[in-house]
Specification:
Layout: H1 10-20, H2 29-42, E1 59-61, E2 73-74, E3 79-81, E4 87-90, E5 101-102, E6 108-110
Antiparallel strand pairs: 1-6, 2-5, 3-4
InterPro entries: Tensin_C2-dom
Protein name: C2 tensin-type domain-containing protein
Domain C2 tensin-type: 51-111
Length: 111
């Protein structure tokens, strides 16, 4: 009922269910929240989540950024943060182990 958008509110669904199936359905608050979530999805109140996995294999910087002291290249790395601003991935290593890319390289691939 919620998924097909017949009713927009949980209370309407519960009343309909009471009239058709049983007098007093015992729904927990968690179940009601989930039904409301389905209603919101059906009526476009919230955006549908995407189920496509995104895999980034490499990022190419072109031209090479000139961020080092000599202003002729950089040692790039990537930090990925979630919506709570918590770091969930990093390519950072010991600075001496990071490859130095210079302007003569033309492109800077970050694996």
């Amino acid at each position: 009922i919620a998924y097909h958008g017949i009713f927009q509110q949980v209370d309407h669904i519960v009343r309909y269910y009471e009239a058709r199936r049983c007098a007093h359905p015992l729904l927990t608050m968690s179940q009601k929240r989930y039904i409301q979530y389905l209603c919101d999805l059906s009526f476009g109140t919230i955006e549908r989540p995407h189920f496509t996995e995104l895999v980034i294999k490499t990022i190419n910087l072109s031209p090479v950024p000139l961020f080092n002291r000599e202003r002729n290249g950089c040692r790039p790395y990537i930090d990925v943060f979630n919506q709570d601003n918590k770091k969930i991935f990093s390519t950072y290593q010991d600075p001496n182990k990071l490859r130095v890319f210079t302007a003569t390289d033309g492109v800077c691939p970050i694996p």
